[in-house]
Amino acid sequence: MIKVLRETHETPKSVAHSLEIAGGINRFHEPNYRAVWGWNRLAWIGGKFAERDPATGALLREVVELRQEPKYPAVNRWHIEKWMPPETYGSPRAWWAQTMEIEGGPKHSGVRSISSARRI
Hints:
Elements: H1 13-23, E1 33-37, E2 42-52, E3 59-70, E4 77-82, H2 92-99, E5 112-118
Antiparallel strand pairs: 1-4, 2-3, 4-5
């Protein structure tokens, strides 16, 4: 079995504390802002994925499935996320309509990334 290793980091306490002071807390007594390392944020993504030969890049097969993939394309940096109340997204029906994906359609997520910082 192949095991994929990915770089993960815990948010430094001083950064988490600064974000809590700057942004306050939400109705669940959690900070409104948080810093997350790109590889730490995985999301279930469903769709058609192309699997390629690593040596040649030739298409081996296409599969339709659910996978846990990085939420942000820039995985090697910190991202600042802002908590948003559910009513921001409208009714459950409206949220479903906005986040449901059709092959070739737009992608949406529930947490907004407001910025990212490149690791130096």
